[in-house]
Amino acid sequence: MPDQPEQQAPPVQRLRIRYAKRGRLRFTSHRDFSRAFERAVFRARIPMAYSSGFNPHPRISYAGAAPTGSASEAEYLEIALAQVVDPAAVQSALDEALPEGLDVLQVVVSGGGSLADLLEASRWNIELADVPLDDARAAAAAFLVAEEVVVERMTKKGVRAFDCRAAVASLETEESGEGSALDVVILQGTPAVRPDDVLEGLRRAGGLVTQGVPLHRRLAQGPWDPQTRTVGDPLGGVEG
Asked: What's 86-103 look like in SS3?
């Protein structure tokens, strides 16, 4: 009779973690980050709960990861623990164990439910250093009045066309240095619309012309309130 896989004890505590990707670390892929985080958990001696089976692994749930190359102040994950710990101590230990640029901003005890279900929208800042404000405003106005803006993206299954306009809950322009910037709220959906898709939509619908590589930075991620037009904080409170 074959050996039975080891059964692990159920978690006694779950913590939700908000972290940032800054500077050069914004180019860290999700796979690379998950490896770095697991190493940090080990170095910080966090009492993780493990999955059952022949190949147990620490119980970490990732949600709503930003695209590679995008900076973010609002990345989230959840960990399951085998012991009850102080969230503040976990925050300090993990932040020290992770490289600079992957920064732990907040750790709280999970309130239950699904973390992923709370991440309904993201607020992004997109820097357009080479685009005059008037040009950005004109492109945004044309995009917003369009009923549909179809863009294409290469996926694992080939080129896919989809409407990026429906996912944009709000879009504003502002002056930034000698250029301009976009403040855009993107609703979570399938397929997930990215800042690059919005820029492509602005090119197609509004003739936006960019020369350099725009910097995308996620400012907030959480539940979307259409009445107040704000992105809520999934750990509690309002982000903006």
From this structure: CHHHHHHHHHHHCCCCEE
